[in-house]
Amino acid sequence: MHALVCAVQRGSNPAPQQQQQQQQRLKASSTAASAATAAAAAALCLVLAGPGAVAAAEVVGDDFSLPYAKPEVTTDSSPRALALAARLRDAGAHMYGAFWCSHCFEVEQLFGRQAMAAFPYEECFPTGWNRAVKLAPACAAVPVRAFPTWTIGDRVIEGELDFDAIESTLDEVAAAAATAAP
After folding, report:
1. Are residues 143 and 94 located together in one domain of the fold?
2. What 8-state DSSP symbol labels residue 161?
3. Gene3D superfamilies in the record, alphabetically (predicted)?
4. ∠ at Cα 155 (149, 156), nearest 5°?
5. Best CA proximity match to 85, nearest among 171, 179, 166, 26
6. What pLDDT digit, counting tens, does each position of 26-52 carry?
């Protein structure tokens, strides 16, 4: 078995002795040692470490897997975030993501913990990830090819969206539905 080694440092430029005390080593079985895998591993390390952390990852070997670890949303929701999360839910929209996806985590942080409690989010790897694990059925049905992926009305949108883009898309979908109604 090989490993993903993730070194995480919290805080800014501590003394070398403090650096050693602040580092965490996370080990998980690991897959292909490609640059893309290493980049994904570093992103996972940052998500697991939380805000303000610096992380480095090294993938060693050819058997890579990630156990599921729900990222902790640490920000508070703004009134706009709460209203937009409710609007997405009411429209039947969904955001499909992966626990290891840094873009998904950024969206979760943007919305904040209160909005995320009722947010229409679908985890595509609820039992963890490795080569043999398939997307969760709801994600496969879309089909999800990138993270995050959004479904808003009849639209499938790949990538991180900000509040303005989400509101604009919701408005366009609502307007199209209103003109299509008899």
Report:
1. yes
2. -
3. Glutaredoxin (3.40.30.10)
4. 25
5. 166
6. 333 333 334 445 555 555 555 555 555
